[in-house]
Amino acid sequence: MKRIQAQLAPKIGIVKDIGIDLGTANTLVYVKGKGIVLHEPSVVAVRAHTGEILAVGSEAKEMIGRTANNITAIRPLREGVIADFNTTRSMLKYFISKALNGRTFFRPRVLIGIPLGVTQVEKRAVVEAAIQAGAKEAYVVEEPVAAALGAGLKVSDPKGCMVVDIGGGTTEVAIIAMNDVIIGRSIRMGGDKMNVAIVRYLKRKYNLEIGEGTAEKIKQDIGYATDPPADKGIMVKGRNLATGLPVRIEVNAEEISLALQETMNVITEVVQTSIEKAPPELASDIMDRGMILVGGGALIKNIDRLLMKHLSVPVVIAEDPLTCVVRGTGLALEELSILRQVATDQRAVSNFR
Prior knowledge:
Layout: E1 5-8, E2 17-22, E3 26-31, E4 35-41, E5 44-47, E6 53-56, H1 58-61, E7 71-74, E8 77-78, E9 81-82, H2 85-99, E10 109-114, H3 120-132, E11 137-142, H4 143-150, E12 161-166, E13 171-177, E14 180-187, H5 191-206, E15 208-209, H6 212-222, E16 233-240, E17 246-252, H7 253-277, H8 280-289, E18 291-294, H9 303-311, E19 315-317, H10 324-334, H11 336-342, H12 346-349
Parallel strand pairs: 2-10, 10-11, 12-18, 18-19
Antiparallel strand pairs: 1-11, 2-3, 3-4, 5-6, 5-7, 8-9, 12-13, 13-14, 15-16, 16-17
């Protein structure tokens, strides 16, 4: 299975190696020799009539739901892939420049994590966006491979390891052995769909309208995949759809767990199907070694308990699951032998010195 592709640009300028986790919800950047230097929302604020970019990242996210009609705060990546090429390019240019402290005369080599199962056109779009954003060379690596590296797994081991990466736009399930993804599944469902489910639940039950940011906070504070505590709740502010006036209600963890149930069922089913399709030897490895959860969705309370309950397989949440993918790209950049192990295009990787 192809995991790394390259697009070479003219060899000019001083080279800096950068790893990027270009996520639907957040973008993280790793600079070789420095570590993770940037972690910001994948959001761009644009003036609607002119297309002028007003803010990127954290500053742009603050504008969501608070902007005038002529200013739109958008997320240029949807469900793990580029939905708005020009805005993605501008966002990447901003993040790359910020990671290099504004020294735009450096032309970095960039390694970007992308979801499993994206089309060749989508891969090409990521590479071209990085090149046009100022990269000297751009490579893509499948996110589960990078996540496994970042979580400390040995992807070169003949024994299988399993990674479940629950991101904002996608959930990636991969069984990896001998530097290859033996079983890989990607569904366009993740943290964003959980937020939508919470919004819909509160609208249906309480006639309450809330924004994406409020739904995200509810999920983080009282989102339980299973076994929610009966006594845990928070106050939620929103707009009553009948009166149009702002209101405040109390929502409990049991309600939010119910709202998340459909999404959790789909994720559990995909993980189960992946194990069932694995060769017997690899399935046995997973039974012994378990699986590791990465991505923002790994922080949903009791999600490990939910998977263990349904699959009878050990489940471990990675240390700092939000940064596993970008740490994996950084490890590949720091240890070129690892990059060469997971690469299929040896000519492309040979450019790294």
